[in-house]
Amino acid sequence: MSQEVVQQVIGRAITDAEFRQQLITNARAACADYELSEEELTALEALDHEGLKAFAGQLDARLSKSAGRGFI
């Protein structure tokens, strides 16, 4: 299990609204470019989607990939 890769995925989901939606819709497809175990993929599929969105919404807009586009 690679905690570092899971952290990368979660960090990207928090700062990149488009990726976050892909992760929520289909975590396995969104994570296809990451080397994740079955256990990690299952854990990412089980993320609290509303909590993830709420946390991302609280970040300073300068940290968001969507900064300047009017949404997080």
TrEMBL record:
SUPFAM superfamilies assigned to the protein according to its UniProt record, in alphabetical order: Nitrile hydratase alpha chain
Native source organism of the sequence: Candidatus Viridilinea mediisalina
Lineage per the UniProt record: Bacteria, Bacillati, Chloroflexota, Chloroflexia, Chloroflexales
Q: What is this protein called?
A: Uncharacterized protein
For molecular function, the Gene Ontology terms on record are: catalytic activity; transition metal ion binding
Superkingdom assignment: Bacteria
Which Pfam families does the entry mention? Frankia_peptide
